[in-house]
Amino acid sequence: MQAKILVLCKHDGIRETILRLLGNNADWQGIGTNNLFEAKQMLGSDNFDIALLGNGFTEAEESEVTEFVNQHSPGTKTVYHYGGGSGLLSAEIYQALA
Amino acid sequence: MENFVIHRAGTRGYADHGWLKSSHTFSFAGYYNHERVQFGALRVLNDDYVAGGRGFGDHPHDNMEIISIPLEGKLIHKDSMGNSAIITTGEIQVMSAGTGIYHTEYNADPSEAVKFLQIWIFPNKRNVTPRYDQMLIKAKKPNELYQVLSPNKDDAGVWIHQNAWFNMGEFDTDTNVTYKLNNAADNGVYILILKGQATINGQALDTKDGMGIWAVDELDINAQAGAQLLLMEVPMEVKQQ
């Protein structure tokens, strides 16, 4: 079964890079957004395994996502993404899914 | 309980793409080992070889302090902040990727390979304004440790957004030195033997072996003639402001 990953990232190029890399792995399905409201709608209506918090959100917005996930989507793991590309992405997801 | 870990050179992850050969001390790209993910805030320690004229095309980074140290040869760097520079052996380069940057990194020589370390440190603050710097770090004299990186703009070497200190040393004679940690309460030290042999707190290490030590105030180092060392003092816990 594919792991479903919501990618929250305001930098369009980095979000597209992450989604492309996720698409290279048949076990992962990535969906991206740069909008906090849209992210909460998606997290509330679909079952994501991971909410991957990329760059550009304020600390308050990041906390808002984490609190929303805790309340409305407790099966989703919130993971902070670092590095912006292929270097750490796989390890971040493997660790979250372990 | 042991307060150190040793990663022998031959046990590192390895990727061979022909033009790029990379040894990974910690999990990176296609190499994943759940027991080797990071040493505190030190997340990436890649020992790279790039063939002449080849390199990394335009690609993004964010939220990471990225340090490059050429060991042989030179790199040419261009980024989305408008920086264009050549970094040669004896220099150190630092990028705070922060909210996001694009860059290219190529071997500046069309025929000779470049060998360099690529080091990623978790920042102590997410989404900082991206920045770039490079600096000459050649030792003023051998047989001493000298600082090449710190958290302080006015201190020796380049600076990063993390409470980390890097020191290097080149030794032309058997030498005993002591390294006192800047922040022993929170930090550990990861040592990479760039060349030769050294004994750190009683543990014998060879070329490209790595050793992480925590819960100590200082390190007792015996460097043999011909040894070159890199010491990376980093927080053992990643905290963000």
Automatic annotation (TrEMBL), chain A:
Name assigned to this protein: Response regulatory domain-containing protein
The organism of origin for this protein: Mucilaginibacter pallidiroseus
Domain of life, source organism: Bacteria
Automatic annotation (TrEMBL), chain B:
Domain Quercetin 2,3-dioxygenase C-terminal cupin: 148-234
Cofactor binding note of this UniProt entry: Binds 1 Fe cation per subunit.
Chain sites annotated for binding Fe cation: 59, 61, 103, 105
Co-factor(s): Fe cation
Keywords per UniProt: Iron, Metal-binding
Pfam families cross-referenced by the UniProt entry: Pirin, Pirin_C_2
Iron found in the keyword field: yes
Segments forming domain Pirin N-terminal: 14-121
Keyword Electron transport belongs to the record: no
InterPro entries: Pirin (IPR012093), Pirin_N_dom (IPR003829), Quercetinase_C (IPR041602), RmlC-like_jellyroll (IPR014710), RmlC_Cupin_sf (IPR011051)
Any one GO molecular-function label of the UniProt entry: metal ion binding
UniProt record similarity statement: Belongs to the pirin family.
PANTHER family found in the cross-reference section: QUERCETIN 2,3-DIOXYGENASE
Name of the molecule in the record: Pirin family protein
